[in-house]
Amino acid sequence: MISKELEEKLIANERSILAALKRRDPSAVATALADGFYEIGKGGKSYSKAEIMNALKDPAAITDYSLEQFRLLRVSASCMIVTYIATVRRRLQGKEEVTRAYRSSTWIEQAGSWRMIFHQGTPITRDSIL
């Protein structure tokens, strides 16, 4: 069983990463991501922690986001998977883009802190089924 405290902590961690991306706070993002972090993006491209940090320089600014339908799965005492649906609004060159995706993050506990080691986003299309 997952404690309410751990569930709330990991959901808050997910939210804090999006908030840090929105305000373009590289130190907060770097702290949240574990060394060895790996992501598979919505287009199927993979990213390292260094590439994510470099992407913070991208002019496609997040203007708003919402996260819903959180689910947690315990892998071990020090490893959890968090899934949810994210709606993200970005502005690039004066145009607004809205994307919805199923997201999955793997969190590991290292030296008393939970850090994200893996993340994947899968775009939600009209044909997607929950």
Could you explain how this protein is built, in words?
The chain is an alpha+beta fold and 130 residues long. It has one domain (4-123): Nuclear Transport Factor 2, Chain: A. It is built from three helices and six strands. It has helices at 4-22, 26-32, 49-55, and strands at 33-40, 46-48, 61-76, 79-92, 95-110, 113-123. Strands 2-1-6-5-4-3 form a six-stranded mixed β-sheet. A hairpin with a 2-residue loop joins β4 and β5 (95-110). The longest helix is centred in the N-terminal third of the chain and has 19 residues, at 4-22. The protein is globular. The two termini are 24 Å apart.
Write the layout of secondary structure elements.
Blueprint: H1 4-22, H2 26-32, E1 33-40, E2 46-48, H3 49-55, E3 61-76, E4 79-92, E5 95-110, E6 113-123
Parallel strand pairs: 1-6
Antiparallel strand pairs: 1-2, 3-4, 4-5, 5-6
Question: What is the gist of this entry?
Answer:
The protein has 130 residues and is of the alpha+beta class.
Number of helices, counting only DSSP H or I runs of 4 residues or more: 3
Number of discrete domains: 1
Q: Going across the biggest sheet, name each strand in turn.
A: 2-1-6-5-4-3
Question: What form results from the Cα inertia axes?
Answer: globular
SSE order: HHEEHEEEE
